[in-house]
Specification:
The chain is α+β, with helices and mostly antiparallel strands. It has one domain: Glutaredoxin, CATH 3.40.30.10. 37% of the residues lie in helices and 15% in strands. It contains nine helices and eight strands. A hairpin with a 5-residue loop joins strand 5 and strand 6. The longest helix is centred in the C-terminal third of the chain and has 14 residues. It starts with a helix and ends in a 10-residue tail after the last helix.
Length: 211
């Protein structure tokens, strides 16, 4: 699995505290602004309003022909804010995610009860620890189905992860990596390398989506 440290040279965000202006799609009224909820997290209108029974959420996603992901956040996290106000505000990215993914939002230090994939219930904070999530934002991606999984594989069925803030091109690429099931034949670094090479071969710049 790709780690945050290994990926820093490719996908590091702006330095902590550096302001990134909200993408123009929000300013133009194309999308609803993320809502700042009582727990201090920005919430997207397309996020699933979940009962936090993640196996059921995964099945609901599969029934819609979509993939299931969890976004972990923390109150006051600047990179979480950038994910909402920059990445999710880019039409190409937002539309791809809405069409192909069901996402729930969890709080890294939250107390809500989550029923894990193995049926065990625990608070968000404990579920984060059990999932190996230590910082925000983190996106976890899961298989299309839990069929055939048991034991440790059922408790932790993650197949890919965004460990921290990824700039828009790399962010979208990870969602495409999962949608295409490219993880079945290569890791994300190899997938990304081939994608960047394709842009170069076509004489096209890597998209930056500057506002």
């Amino acid at each position: 699995m790709i780690t945050r440290r290994r990926f820093n040279s490719l996908a590091a965000g702006a330095a902590l505290g550096t302001a990134i202006a909200p993408y123009s799609a929000f300013a133009a009224g194309k999308y609803e602004d993320p809502v700042l909820a009582e727990n201090g997290l920005y919430h997207e209108p397309f996020f699933l309003e979940s009962f936090l029974e993640v196996a059921d959420d995964l099945k609901e996603a599969a029934d819609q022909g979509k993939r299931f992901a969890i976004m972990w956040e923390l109150e006051g996290c600047p990179y979480c804010r950038e994910t909402h106000f920059v990445n999710f505000a880019i039409p190409e990215i937002r539309e791809f995610i809405e069409e192909n993914f069901v996402i729930i939002q969890l709080d890294l230090i939250g107390a809500r009860q989550v029923v894990g994939f193995d049926g065990k219930s625990m608070g968000e904070k404990a579920f984060a620890r059990a999932s190996g999530v230590r910082f925000s934002p983190t996106f976890q991606f899961f298989p299309e189905t839990l069929d055939g999984l048991s034991g440790a594989a059922l408790a932790k069925p993650e197949i890919a992860r965004i460990p921290g803030y990824f700039k828009p091109f790399y962010f979208l690429s990870m969602f495409q990596f999962v949608k295409e099931k490219a993880y079945e034949g290569q890791d994300f670094r190899a997938y990304l390398k081939s994608k960047i090479a394709a842009y170069k071969d076509a004489g096209k710049p890597i998209p930056t989506w500057k506002s």
